[in-house]
Design goal:
This protein has 922 residues and is mainly beta. Helices cover 11% and strands 44% of the residues. The chain is built from 12 helices and 52 strands. The strands form 11 sheets. It has a 22-stranded antiparallel barrel. The radius of gyration is 31 Å and the shape is globular.
């Protein structure tokens, strides 16, 4: 960043010398009504310089470009128009013609250059300014779930995850989210935190989405797709805008009363002489989050027909501490009494987003930008446990130098986990603080579980006076004597202490990690006449710090460096009916071999507005910093990241036994000794049941995709888009558990070493959970079809459907990430921007069928997500005299309380009313 700023400062005086300024003025009106068009955008073709019209449709543009010049004029709801200006002495009058939104869509994300959405080489979806404003959902981000191909999973009010084409999760590190080109992931979590951080609705201009791998242009994070969000440029969107939105949730719920939601935002932007502009944004949201209260018994040691509230070994999904269960002699299987999640989490969610940006146009085609984002919030999310991001702080700095055919960008992302903690772990730890021995004295935490089960057994078998024998309820009550009740002073004191304690002895989470990224791109197309050529590259570095709580970084730094470069060429042939595009990217991470990811596509235009496309895409995903460098000694097992440096000198990957071979060995050894065989001889007889593990070090995941599609416009009022894809996946990242003895696994003869087997029996060994890759190949396929139909009198009808299918082939399901995607999904939308004067509405209906959700939260045991349908709706009223829109709406109108991920809360209705003031509103 410092070098970039130094370059600009040194070259700026030269660039400003001897520049002649022309001033172009004029008025833009609606061609059909002659009404002035405010907020229309004018840009000099091939340059960055431009301006917008004021509330009377007037504009003034200062430029150093020589006359004549061409102005590109755009406005929401109008056809794009190019106007030639030959003289600056006469005002320019421009009349814009109304246009259907179906024809007025340009996208950038698919090819990293602007092109018609109809001619995109790969599937791409878009929400423009109008769609963002008119979404029936509570926010634009939630409105994305109405977009074709999109899967959205809700963990809370401010934590929603976007995904496409399967392998869904509540923390999606396979999907890239960009805001103005900046990766919105936090460095420690390694995925974007939904709508907790980012931009407010007021500042969002457009959203583009690529379903499926886009690694060939965007690198390793874009394994499952890209979401590109663009905010409003202060040169083009000036003035004051503000929003107040108030809602209510928790309607007719068992554990919470109706509660208010409050969302406020303000934006202000101003430009000076078309040279300098700034904008500031501030937004604040608060509300009571959804409660996770799924108390289904999921105990793996109890047969399904015996599970339930009366099961002594009950392990309820959202009760924590009851997952500690044992088989007691003369009693049976019993679990500890746990704590419901609602007493452990802070459901008072909030999100603060502050943003400021400075834009300076050095020349007509060179603009310098500095932007700062400050975010802080609270949200619950479901991972391997239920986590509380409590006062989580996320900051970003961005500096960018850009022209019409290039950019150079650098940014830094900094996180501070603050008061975040593991909610499930918190319940387990509180359970160890109050257990009493048979004399009534509190025992040390390390002895708590053993003593609790001892009390239970003694009471159940009748060894405790005044406690009925053979009564599970009475035995549990005796074992629970002294238990800290939720809400009590003792409970709250332990809760606060454990949240403040980071590492294995507490529930607190520490991460103050950083991400640094620099990239650039140049479009050579104007200099090469034979074909279009685009090239770019990037470098990024993760700087991790957990103070030894997750990584071995207390006394030395852990940094991860990676970079890549791409080149893309395209050309039109056969009288420009066929557009061929090919790109290739090379990426290198310090811990892995370099990798090429090619992409090739063809788009054939058979007639005006009818386009067929086919593409071959490849993608890959580097293991996250956690996958590479976690080193967490969790007592009986150590979780170990999979790069060689992380286990250097430990000899774990090279010298260990498979966990699946331990049971047969221990069983056979015990049977041999039980029949009278001496231990040494029993070892020699059974040692060959042990299997040396063969765990490779971790490497990136890979995918190849073939896709065909059609996009066309019929009669200027029906847009049809359909595609089919087939994907093949290799090297999925997974965990494998091994046991390492102190002695070498193999003896000099190449067979299992008897001393290593004896180490297992003597306890001279340790369990490890290693990060590695699956060796099996799996495939998926799917298809989507959608249409948008412009009906008479300004009505719009849209519908889309998605089919997704997963083929495990011959792979072990335990070695493959769960597909976690319904086979069928569909959405129907219906709306009118002006059903009557100043009144509009929009309705969206979504349905998906039943599927099984598998995740580490339930130890990879599947849970059913039942089929459901949801309706969102809004009615709006435009108050032109005060430049405001009032909206009355609802998410989930009929309050169908549904689960979207197993272990996450059920989601009910949100009813809301909002008012938006926009100084540039027409």
């Amino acid at each position: 960043m410092k070098k970039l700023l130094l370059f600009v400062c040194l070259t700026l005086p030269t660039l400003l010398v001897a520049q002649t300024v022309n001033t172009v003025t004029g008025t833009i009106t609606d061609a059909s009504t002659n009404a002035p068009v405010s907020g229309a955008s004018l840009v000099i073709k091939g340059k960055l310089t431009g301006t917008t019209t004021d509330e009377n449709g007037n504009f003034k543009l200062n430029t150093t470009s020589a006359l004549p010049l061409t102005l590109v004029v755009t406005g929401v709801g109008f056809q794009k128009q190019e106007v030639t200006v030959s003289s600056a002495s006469q005002p320019v009058a421009i009349g814009l013609s109304s246009q259907t939104e179906l024809l007025n869509e340009m996208v950038v994300t698919a090819s990293r250059v602007e092109e018609s959405i109809l001619e995109s080489p790969v599937s791409i979806e878009k929400m423009d300014t109008r769609a963002i404003r008119e979404t029936p959902s509570f926010s634009f981000y939630e409105g994305l779930q109405n977009v074709k191909s999109v899967e959205m999973v809700t963990s809370g009010l401010t934590f929603k995850q976007i995904n496409t084409r399967g392998f869904n999760s509540t923390g999606n590190s396979r999907f890239l989210q960009l805001v103005d080109g900046v990766d919105n992931q936090t460095p420690g979590l390694n995925f974007a935190v939904g709508n907790l951080f980012g931009s407010s609705d007021l500042d969002m201009e457009s959203v583009e989405l690529i379903p499926g791998s886009a690694s060939a242009l965007y690198g390793p994070v874009a394994f499952n797709g890209v979401l590109m969000m663009r905010t409003k440029n202060p040169f083009q969107y000036q003035g004051l805008s503000a929003q107040a939105r108030v809602g209510v949730n928790h309607i007719n719920e068992q554990y919470a009363d109706p509660h208010g939601l409050y969302d406020f935002a303000v934006r202000y932007a101003k430009a000076f002489n078309n040279k300098f502009a700034f904008k500031v944004n501030a937004s604040y949201f608060t509300g009571l989050d959804w409660y996770a209260t799924n108390y289904t018994d999921v105990d793996p040691g109890t047969s399904p027909e015996q599970r339930g509230d009366n099961n002594p070994a009950r392990n309820a999904l959202n009760i924590y501490g009851d997952d500690e269960a044992r088989q007691l002699a003369d009693v049976g299987r019993v679990s500890r009494t746990g704590y419901e999640e609602r007493y452990l989490m802070n459901y008072n969610s909030y999100s603060v987003k502050l943003n400021g940006a400075l834009h300076y146009r050095i020349t007509d085609n060179m603009e310098l930008i500095y932007q700062y984002n400050y975010n802080q919030g609270r949200a619950a999310y479901t991972g391997s446990n239920r986590f509380m991001l409590n006062n989580f702080n996320f900051q970003q700095h961005r500096v960018e130098l850009k022209g019409s055919n290039y950019f150079v960008r650098a940014y830094a992302s900094l996180e501070d986990s603050k008061d975040s903690y593991n909610g499930k772990g918190l319940g387990q730890l509180i359970n160890k603080t109050w257990v009493r021995d048979l004399s009534g004295n509190i025992v040390p935490e390390a002895q708590a579980d053993d003593m609790w089960f001892t009390r239970y057994r003694e009471a159940y078998i009748g060894d405790i006076n005044n406690v009925a024998a053979g009564d599970h309820a009475a035995a549990r009550a005796f074992a629970d004597q002294g238990r800290f009740l939720p809400g009590s002073a003792d409970f709250n004191a332990q809760k606060d202490r454990l949240i403040a304690t980071q590492g294995l002895s507490g529930a607190g989470i520490l991460s103050q990690s950083k991400l640094y990224h620099a990239e650039g791109q140049y479009d050579f197309s104007s200099k090469i006449k034979v074909f279009d050529l685009l090239a770019g590259g990037n470098f990024r570095m993760y700087d991790m710090f957990t103070n030894g709580t997750l990584f071995d970084d207390k006394n030395h730094k852990i940094t991860i460096k990676e970079g890549g470069a791409f080149v893309q060429a395209s050309k039109r042939v056969i009288n420009e009916h066929l557009k061929l595009t090919a790109s290739i990217r090379y990426d290198k991470n310090q811990n892995f071999e370099g990798r090429f990811t090619p992409r090739a596509s063809a788009v054939y235009t058979v007639a005006t507005n009818h386009h067929f496309r086919t593409s071959y895409q490849t993608g890959f995903r580097n293991p996250t910093p956690g996958d590479q460098y976690i080193k967490l000694n969790a007592g009986p097992i150590t979780i170990l990241g999979g790069v060689p440096d992380n286990s250097k000198g430990m000899n774990v990957y090279e010298n260990s036994f498979t966990s699946t071979s331990l049971g047969p060995f221990f069983g056979a050894f015990g049977a041999a000794v039980g029949s009278g065989t001496p231990p040494q001889q029993a070892v020699m007889q059974t040692k060959d049941l042990l299997v040396k593990s063969n765990v490779p070090y971790i490497k990136p995941e890979r995918v190849q995709t073939f896709e065909v599609g059609y996009k066309g416009l019929l009669n200027n009022n029906l847009l049809v888009d359909a595609n089919y894809y087939f994907s093949s996946y290799n090297d999925f990242i997974l965990n494998q558990v091994v046991m390492q003895p102190e002695s070498p696994v193999l003896g000099p003869d190449g067979k299992i070493n008897p001393q290593a087997a004896m180490d297992l029996l003597n306890g001279d060994s340790h369990l490890y959970q290693l990060y590695t890759n699956a060796s099996e190949r799996v495939t998926s396929q799917g298809a989507t079809v959608g249409f948008t139909y412009l009906l008479p009198r300004n009505y719009t009808l849209g519908a889309n459907g998605t089919w997704a299918d997963f083929n495990l082939r011959n792979a072990n399901p335990n070695d493959i990430p769960a597909f976690n995607t319904p086979k069928y999904r569909t959405t129907v939308t219906f709306g009118n921007t002006e059903i009557a004067k100043n009144i509009g509405f929009n309705v969206a209906w979504r349905w998906q069928d039943t599927f099984e959700w598998t995740s580490t939260f339930n130890q990879l045991r599947p849970g059913t997500i039942n089929a459901y349908s949801i309706v969102d709706a809004q009615v709006s009223y435009k108050m032109s005299p005060i430049k405001s829109i009032v909206k009355l709406g609802a998410n989930n109108v009929f309050n169908n309380q549904v689960y979207q991920a197993y272990g996450s809360p059920s989601i009910g209705a949100v009813y809301y009313v909002s008012i938006v003031f926009d100084q540039l509103m027409k």
